[in-house]
Amino acid sequence: MAKIGAVKENRPWTVNFNQNSIRGYNIKDGSGKVVNAVDFGAKYNQEIQYKFPTSSVEYDSATLTFNPNGTSTSGFAYMSNKTKSGYYKIGLSFPNGSIILHKWDDSQWK
């Protein structure tokens, strides 16, 4: 949504993790207006959390920016379920705006 919005509006859009200490994310358009917000507590009954498998890191960057030309900043959010039975790294690793999803296999991201 953020990448398409940035290209369509010809202005940067952002994805903001844990905005205002709400466990979740929001997407802001080029004017800074929130156009989509997800609260993990309300939507998923507190089952989703930000958590790196081997440390207390929650994300590389609290804000990811999609530019009008389709490029982006890079960074990841690290997520798990409440029981910590699975860990995922979700985000952007390339400036081309491609979204990447990796799963932790108890030793590395795959």
Computed structural class: mainly beta
**Termini distance?**
25 Å
Uncertain spans, ≥5 residues at pLDDT below 50? none
Give the total of domains. 1
The total of beta strands comes to: 8
The CATH architecture can be named as: 3-Layer(bab) Sandwich
Mean pLDDT reading? 91
Q: Which CATH C-level class is it?
A: Alpha Beta
Describe the structure.
There is one protein chain. The chain is mainly beta and 110 residues long. The chain has a single domain (2-103), classed as minor pseudopilin epsh fold (3-Layer(bab) Sandwich), CATH 3.55.40. It is 12% helix and 37% strand. The strands form 2 sheets. Strands 3-2-1-5 form a 4-stranded antiparallel sheet. It has a 4-stranded antiparallel sheet with strand order 4-6-7-8. A hairpin with a 6-residue loop joins strand 1 and strand 2 (24-28). The longest helix is centred in the N-terminal third of the chain and has 8 residues, at 2-9. The protein is globular and about 40 Å long. The two termini are 25 Å apart.
